[in-house]
Amino acid sequence: MEPLAPTRARARRFFDTGTGIVFLLILAAPTLDHWVRPDERERSPNRRELRTPAPLPDFPRATAAALEYPKQFEAWFNDSMGLRDQLLRWNSIVKVFGFGVSPNRNTFLGRDGWMFYGGDNSKENHRGALPSTEIDLRRWAAMIERRRLLLKSIGVEYLFVIAPDKESIYADFLPDEMKPIGPRRLEQFVVYMRTLAPAVQILDLCDPLIAAREGDRPDAYLYTKLGTHWNERGAQVALRAMLERMNELVGGFEPRELDDFVRTELPPPGDSMATSMYIGDLLPMSIHEYAPPQPKAVEKHTGGYTFGRVRKSELADSTRPRVVLIHDSFGPQIEVGLSEQCSYLECQWNWAFDVDEVRRIRPKILVDLFVERTLNHADPLRFRPLDPYPWERRFAMSSSTLVAADKDASQWNLRGQGPIELRPVHELVRPRLPLVLGAAEGVIDLGTVVPVQGQVPVLHASIDSPLETELWVFTRLPGELGVPSQPKFLHGLNKGPNLIFLPLALPESGARVLIRPGRDPGTYYLRELEIRSVSQP
Questions:
Q1: pLDDT of 1
Q2: Domain limits at 323?
Q3: Domain ends where: 362, 383, 404?
Q4: pTM surpassing 0.90?
């Protein structure tokens, strides 16, 4: 047996040498890929993942920059290394086809080959494991009501439209672990808005879309099977429901004209999460659009498919309403169809709107269109209108006082009602009136406020709050007794000083105004309190 030893040794040396060469080739493969494929577009996340790759950082010249340099360099390398696209592709092939799991943390696999978006807390929301708090709902209600009031002050109607997440319409294709354990945030929001801000026109598109599922076919669902947005059928159903509600509010639209639109196929890839996994060619998906057979609206301007995009169109010699659409990524699918219904349409992919710009456009109605998951992650402050003439400035320009605290009188001549105590004024650099709120029912009665015709009553208050809460404003009509169960208006309070200028939409005959300095018991300090009549913008 001894003569076999040299053979084994040679085989072992050959194996070790081959293993080393393979190992070195693997290490060198990314660099070789850079030489063979110098164009980085295939490796970049820009085309498939729809995000901008991290840039190569400059060499650090200071200590602070040197501390950040390793993290920035790693981010650049992860987005630009050789063979990146091929490695991600094979990782997806193994996980999706081999183990039936998603390689992407923001995507999860459903039944029958369906894919669902799991980012922005979508999974938790659709299980009912992410309920909104009372303060969440109040902040949303306050911001949306603020948009409505500001638009009303310049003569524009307002409609808030919610596009459901795909999970809300195709829940039967979700995996077993997505069984609901509570209500979704959208369900809470709709109920709350109808109670707290009934003047806001809310259109929840869940019902028309669920009803339209009766017309589903394997090549014609309402949402893309592998994506997160609605497709041409879903957009068509949504647009019809929007036009019907807009017609009720301002008139001038013809939803039946959508029946004449023609369905045509578009080139891939479309809205497919398989593309971001680098396996879009292995999971093909046809996409279509509905378009008028003979378009009449003329596109005047359009931007790229991204946040900040603006699209403008006109319908020549038309008496139909002028419209502004503020939207997220669900808006572009309805722009063409909507433009055929408007003498002028301006679509803005944005959160807020510029009041001066809206005033210049002179729309009959402004429509907000946002997807359901916005309620999961977006801060309502993003929706704050960009008003170059804020209520503070308008208040300062007015000398028409409707109600004011009399600082020369005891307890400023204010009267508490219920469990609230007005204590002696603290005479500091600026005097302040302590308001001790013992329970949630306590209020300060400001008496009856009658608006001046064509003007807006604006409440100005300066309050030091012991905690983060809200100022509540109630209105009571003649003949009503007690304190209403829900505030008519509210304004968030931070812990510490707060400066408030809040417009009040009151009936022409007037209403009794009651304020509660905070939602929670505690001692609040009032520094200023006045209501003035302010001119319309």
A1: 46
A2: 112-383
A3: 383
A4: no
